[in-house]
Specification:
It comes from Paractinoplanes abujensis. By secondary structure, the chain is of the alpha+beta class. Helices cover 29% and strands 30% of the residues. The protein has helices spanning 19-23, 56-75, 83-104, 171-174, 196-199, 219-226, 232-240, 242-245; strands spanning 10-16, 30-38, 41-48, 118-124, 127-133, 137-142, 146-151, 176-181, 185-191, 201-204, 210-213, 252-258. The longest helix is centred in the middle third of the chain and has 22 residues, at 83-104.
């Protein structure tokens, strides 16, 4: 895979255990993964297991597997090409991912023990399907256009009864499903909520509320992983640095796709 090829993507994923989990002897409860289906066509996902859930690390792994398995099932035949077909595809993808995740928990008497968020993207340029439940966020790089916070984390999430998980009864009502047509998009970064304070800034909206925004300097991460000499090791070192550790005690995971 070469970065110069317009149909090719460079994929770099990194995940580090948060300082809070290290101190308490807990595993990394985030998960990530990707799967490629043909030239320029792939699915990628990150998930963040709930810290209070007994089997959160398993839940996040099951969520990522559900997203990637569903994408593979749906993309093995002819893929949609018209806008209306892509909208139907996105809706079926969201339903299929949740159904597959539920199926993986049928043998469990306590599904809530597997509580997890999920953020997944199907990359099929110029179309992109993004499905999100919880507080993960998605950065996008456009050329021209710079960095955009395509899917922000929920506002005031700490005051709204907690994060919504794939095991929450209100998950469908609170899900985010985005269909984007953008031939100028050249990079994506899927992030779990442990990176909110480390990567995002806040600005006031017209109502005076603090809203998350992606600072322009975030483009440095896209430039870094676009260089074939740089891989997951360097990104892991950055996430493990004292500066990042000081922003949050949570696990930190990012999955980046660039071309």
């Amino acid at each position: 895979m070469t970065v110069e090829d317009r149909t090719s993507w460079r994929i770099v994923e990194a995940s580090v255990t948060g300082p809070h989990h290290v101190r308490n002897g807990l595993p990394n409860q985030d998960a990530h993964g990707h799967r490629e289906f043909g030239p320029g066509l792939l699915a990628i996902a990150v998930a963040d297991g709930a810290g209070s859930a007994a089997r959160a690390d398993e839940g996040s792994q099951l969520a990522v597997a559900a997203a990637l398995d569903t994408a593979e099932t749906m993309l093995t035949g002819d893929r949609p090409y018209a806008g209306a077909e892509w909208q139907s595809f996105a809706e079926r993808y969201a339903r299929g991912t949740l159904r597959r995740f539920d199926d993986s928990l049928r043998a469990s008497s306590s599904p809530a023990e597997f509580a997890t968020t999920l953020l997944s993207v199907i990359v099929a340029p110029p179309w992109f399907v993004c499905f999100s439940i919880g507080d993960g966020f998605l950065l996008a790089e456009r050329d021209p256009g710079g960095i955009h916070l395509l899917v922000p984390p929920p506002l005031d999430r700490e005051f709204m009864g907690g994060t919504v998980f794939l095991t929450s009864p209100e998950r469908v009502r609170e899900q985010r499903l985005e269909l984007l047509h953008d031939p100028r998009l050249r990079g994506l970064a899927l992030c779990t909520d442990g990176l909110i304070e480390g990567l995002l800034n806040y600005a006031q909206d017209r109502g005076g509320r603090a809203c998350p925004v992606a600072p322009p300097e975030t483009i440095a991460y896209f430039d870094y992983v676009r260089d074939p000499a740089h891989g997951a090791d360097g990104l892991n070192r950055a996430l493990s640095s004292n500066d990042f550790a000081a922003t949050s005690g949570d696990d930190k995971t990012v999955a980046m796709v660039v071309r």
